[in-house]
Amino acid sequence: MSEVMKQPAVMGTPEISLQGAGLSSYLPAAIAFAGAGALTLLRIKVGPEHFSTDGALMMLALAAYLVAATFYLLNLYAPSRLFERVGLACATVGVLMNLASWLTRWVAYREHDVSIWLQQGKPVAEWPWVFRNIPFANLYDLSLAFAFGAGMTTLLIAHRKNFRFLGAVSLPLAALILILARFIGDDILGLQPVLDSYWRPIHVGIASLTYGIALVCFATAVVYLLKDGVKVEAMAFWSSVFAIAIISTIGGPLGTFPILTTGTYAAATFLPPHMPVPLRADIPFVGPLLIIAGLLLLGVVVLFGTYAFSDEQKAPNVKSYQRWGWYLIKAALVAQALAIVLLVWQVKTLKHVAVCADGRPAETACINTQQFYRFGVWMAQQDGVPPAQVATIDPAKLEGEAARFAGQRQDELFLSLNANPVELAALITAFAGTLFVIIFGFKTERLRFALPPKEKIDSLMYKTGGVVFAGLALLLMTGAIWANESWGRYWGWDSKETGAFVAWLTYGGFLHVRISRGWTGRASAYFAIVAFLLIVFTYLGVSYLLPGLHSYA
Q1: What tens digit of pLDDT does each residue of 347-361 get?
Q2: What's the rounded Cα separation, in Å, for the pair 383 and 258?
Q3: Cis peptide bond N-terminal to 278, omega within 30
Q4: CA atoms within 13 A on the CB side of 318
Q5: Distance (Å, rounded) from C-alpha 399 to C-alpha 510?
Q6: What share of the chain is helix, strand, coil (3-state, %, to 5)?
Q7: Among the CATH numbers 2.60.40, 3.40.1820, 3.30.60, 1.20.120, which is that of 25-191?
């Protein structure tokens, strides 16, 4: 008999104690559902003129998540029944508003379609079923459901004594998803006829809720590493690498490293009413601030990398690296914050977009002429010119057409926060990662002491990972059925199909090595973190970077 078979089964499958988890412990979740339902009924009764928009409800959910996370975090550093209760109450309000935002959006979708059908003179008997209007048409809708899945999972778990820490990490991540939704924009979009199927709400609903549970699994894995004694400096090392990668790649086409090569940050522009065009306008001061932040973070990587992976007994002078590393990361946090604030403020306040020229008026964002060739290629493709033929066109001609377009229509171009939702959300995520490691670095031992035994955290990570694996399996199956109904084939190796499949295999590997090889604890946590990063890439990277049938979402 193999050694694996001789090992007790409990090794890879720890149990979560449900002792004390009576029906009353699910009261917050019940309140959230009931409250969201009541608000939705009120919205139907009073109409859109006398009720808050779904966007306003979403912002209330965002605020409630952040306040709840603050009190949960305070409860870790200074345990208090008051902090715990306020955190739970705010989390309940956040989930309630999150769900209400999504449900009232469903009502808005229905009313939008009804108005169109009335204009077309369709009789009521011919109106499509109500589930056709379920809000799963774009990334804004999906992000609302994603954040709700994370918030509800947190609410169902965090009431237990050993898992009250969860909201301190998972709710800020849910808030980041809502921030992304805010920047994507809440426009109501028509549904493509080929996607009109009853499998759509099933498939996309499973995806959104599964992603939310995966977020909780990721948060649990990060907390496990902290409890297990991983140096906060090592976490800061990797968060700084992530932030440097973000700063290096935003502000232009992928692979051009615009901030590093030009020293400026350029935001995408729109034409009325809301048509994005691949012409970017330089935003003053943001690029230099991001370069400063990147250089400071590079110093953090060097100093903390040396400290975290060195033996203090053999190299006692590395303590000075630790001290200076903390100075640099705090300075980098300030630089990141200033860059984000300046970016948002200037996108809101800059009145004009114009081609770069000496003596341009104040309050103007500048379009650099170096991007005209790429824009000329895009214009030719929009006119239906085949790529092979575009490659034969004289670059000077393409640049001339782009310059003519920009000169004639520059007065119509405008800036919007909705133009670069993933870039802006990535900047805020990098800032949040830096902030989190600074918080973790404050009285770290007290924080570790306040966390439950690492076996409990490991158990929660295993259970949520198992649910995610099952959810992704259902996601793939329902997606295949829907694809066959819409396109006549079950699988086409579309970029998002492939990404979801790889993520499912990764969670399968997470469970397999845990059960068969006994990979519990730190190794399992690393696996869970990598698996969630694959989900994030599937969710955002595929939608914005890679072509495919899922690019609409």
Answers
A1: 888 877 877 765 555
A2: 27
A3: no
A4: 16
A5: 51
A6: 70, 5, 25
A7: 1.20.120
Tokens of 240: 């700084």
One-letter-per-residue 3-state SS of 396-453: HHHHHHHHHHHHHHCCCCEECHHHCHHHHHHHHHHHHHHHHHHHHCCCHHHHHHHCCC
Query: Whole-angstrom Cα distance, residue 324 to residue 90?
Result: 37
CA dist., res. 33 & res. 484, Å (int): 34
Task: Return all residues near 51 (Cβ < 8 A) that are at least 6 apart.
Answer: 42, 43, 104
Instruction: For residue 354, list its beta bridge partners.
Output: 366
Task: Enumerate the domain spans of the chain.
Answer: 25-191
33, 73, 300, 326, 379 from 67: Cα distances, Å: 20, 10, 29, 26, 46
Neighbours of 391 (CB within 10 A): 10
CA–CA separation, 283 vs 344, rounded Å?
10
DSSP 482-527: HHHHHHS-S----HHHHHHHHHHHHHHHHHHHHHHH---THHHHHH
Task: Note the pLDDT of residue 545.
Answer: 60
Q: What is the pLDDT of residue 357?
A: 66
| First-to-final CA distance of the chain | 50
DSSP structure class, residue 186: -
Least confident interval from 47-56, 311-320, 528-537: 311-320
Q: In what order do the strands lie in the sheet with 414-415?
A: 352-355, 364-367, 275-283, 265-271, 414-415
CB 37, CB 133: distance < 8 Å: no
Average pLDDT, integer, range 310-339: 84
40 contact partners, CB below 8 Å, separation of at least 6: 100, 103, 104, 106, 107
**At 541, is the secondary structure helix, strand, or coil?**
helix
Angle at 524 between CA 520 and CA 528, to 5 degrees: 150
pTM of the model: 0.85
Q: Cβ-count burial of 18 within 10 angstroms (0-12 exposed, 13-18 middle, 19+ buried)?
A: exposed
- Kindly write down the DSSP assignment for every residue of 279-314, as one continuous string: EEEEETTHHHHHHHHHHHHHHHHHHHHHHHTS-TTT
**Are the CB atoms for 178 and 98 separated by under 8 Å?**
yes
AA identity, residue 307: Y
Go through the chain and tell me how many residues it has: 553
